[in-house]
Amino acid sequence: MSGLFGRERELAELDDLVDRAGERGGALLVVGEAGIGKSSLLDHAVARSQALGHRVLRATGVPSEAHLPFAGLHNLLRPVLAQAHRLPGAQRGALLSALGVADASAPDTFLTALAALNLLADAASHRPILLAVDDAQWLDGPSHQAVAFVARRVERDPIVVIASLRTGHASPLAIAGLRELEVSPLDGSASRDLLAARAPSLGSADLALVLREAQGNPLALIELPAAMRAQKALASELLPSFLPLSARLERAFAGRIGDLPQRVRDVLLVAAIDHESDVPEILAAASELSGERATLDLLDTAADAGLVHFDLATVRFRHPLVRSAVVQSESIGRRQAANAALAAVLADQPYRRTWHRAHAIVGPDDEVADELESSHALALRRGSVVSAIQALERSAQLTTDSATKGRRLLLAAEHAFGLGRADMVDRLLDTAGQGALGDLDRARMEWLREIFNDGVPGDAARVLALCEMARRSAREGDDDLALQLLLGASLRCWWADTGDAARAAVAAAVDELEGLEADPRSVAALGTAEPVLRARQVSELLSGVVLETIPDANALRLYGQAAHAIGDPVRSVDFLERSEAKMRELGALGLLSQVLTMQVLDRLELGDWERAAAEVEEGRQLAQETGQPIWDAGTLSLEAIMAGLTGANQQAQELASRAEQMIRGRGLNDLLSCVQLARGVGWIGAGRHAEAYAALGPVFDPSAESFHLTERFHAVTFFAEAAVHAGHREEALSVIAELSKVAEITPAPTLKVHLAYARAVLAEDGVAEELYREALRGELTRWPWAKARLELAYGAWLRRQRRVAESRVPLRSAHAILALIGASAWATRARVELRAAGEPVAGRDPGGLGRLSAQELQIARLAAEGLSNRDIGERLFLSPRTVGSHLYRLFPKLDITSRSQLADRLASP
Asked: Which of 165, 376, 524, 608 could bridge across to 388 with cysteines, CB 3.0–4.6 Å?
């Protein structure tokens, strides 16, 4: 028996999850208010797991440790850390550095999380594992993210994650899409049963009062009678109804604390503010606080009062409300004294010593402020940006010099910007702006304040202001800040239409940065701001970059961004693919999401639809995980384009509408252009050309919100095709004439390839053949999709000219390529044309690939290249067991039985 009253439903769900751990993994988030019984349910799951022979790894979130990076993860993984030597080198280094076991470069949170996942998966290969995380809302940020990362990915490993979360707390776990178990108050019958078991001597009047005040909260049902007995008072007197229940329970605990001897309260206070829960450390600090030696008998007294549990190593508060009640029951002076006592016994731990020193004083103290600023670097090395921000902010509070205070706040704001926390950035900048700042710091503040507003329509004035700040920064000798400002300005020009003057201003400001022409930030800013007028210059700069000599993942990303912006997909995917590999090694999932998403449209242009499908799926998941709403909406619009290209018109229209809803009112021309492209290709695939023409027309209208200088290039061929079938040839020729003028300015390969197709399709019969032949003579080696569409259009034209035998050659080639790419709607059209030309062709699924999901196909390709399950998992942020499970399921779909057959099957026509 569990001893829990009224929890049959919750216990059944927990038992089912735990009992199946040997067959499959899973994650469950137990959600409810304070005292509702989440910890008791977690205890039940732990006991059941242990009875089944599972390994239990447990951690509890503690408010006082929220500033310590990876403290929660360290507690969770401590029993299995000895196996870390089996991890790949980069993962091992990241994990051990994050946990403070080794001194290495600053670990990326997600690479550390991947290392934790693989460490757990390896340990679970011997026996199933339960990860039990109580009070997850108080985990430090990096640990919280790591647990959420693991929880999303354990479905195919013998790992169960059960975490409890207090209602109303924002949490990475709460947005991770996990199954939730909401714990409700006990009903009247269960409440009475609990009181009968725990407080059988209650009179009828007190019983009624407790039932009314407790509101079905199990902790309240247990604690109110105890508090009444201790203070000989009624529940309504102890717990005024105007207080929320959690605060009333704190008051009940505080009343019990107030009756304890002073030296016991010393030990409890030190334990409440000390994140380590280490008995020797707590007793040493309590001795420092009281001036007398503290011993275990003091903890015995606290345990007898029902406030803590302890052994010779650790102290654990019976409930988190006890911890907070201890702190709230003491004066500010007492809390400061306890922090000072802890600082005194932490001489060998400078980071923690400085943190407690900073909370032991009131008013400015430049010595401690300097120590805190220095210590923030240690937090960064441990992988906790939030802890570094907190250290810098507290350092600023203790600083006497206004300029130094402002600089520290700006540094904290820069770190907050890296986290994507606009709210935190705004708060820090508001505080910094109240003091004296130099010109460079003012420029940095403006950049940080504005950078989150990329894409606001009509913001040309802000672009011009950013350019002027960049010039001032350069004059002051801070080229890095100047380039950051100009990159921010260029992104504004990319996402939204800021007008010719603003774009020109960014390009002119970049030109003024002497000696930085080939810097990836300069190239990216130039190409992103002026993707047409400066395309030739950017193309020449990119030609001078030797891809293999660039070791930096971010530099490769920026070069790829520039190539993508000017419409050069071949160069773009070459740079971005290399950046992607390095981003995966680093575990930089935020930037990896952007790198993946930027490749999608370019891979579609180049006919690499398998990779594009995998990238859009992974890119969207990562954008959601890392909190990047613009990139999330971008991947949704790209998914809509892919649906349209593969003939799923209804899905394309639905996804396009969802993407438009996400970006409505923000004037993001780039994404709106993609939305209209998705609608257009969807209608073409369905053979409804009038609707396609109406959808694509605004893409080429400079007054429309969906007009974008270079995104429109991707729509040219579809617009021409729709115009021919919908009877709008003359209107389309006018658009093509305008784009031909643009092509005289920019060398963009995308535009040139699309224009060649459009001219041939729109031409009169007398000149069409030469235009088709000219287009096919172009350099299309890496453009199989464009080549196949040209051959399809040319073959269809030849058949209409009654040159049937000649038409079969380009139609055969088109059909083979389109079927291989996965362009099913166009492959069907080629098959129909071939049949009309007297050559029946059976529809085929090349190698059964159409039955694989994007992720399965990605895994199959990597396995065929010879990568092990561990290698594949490291690349795709999955556990090796999950990779193996995918392979097991895809073998029957491909009609194979072993890994060695993959390469042949994937290569089969």
From this structure: 376
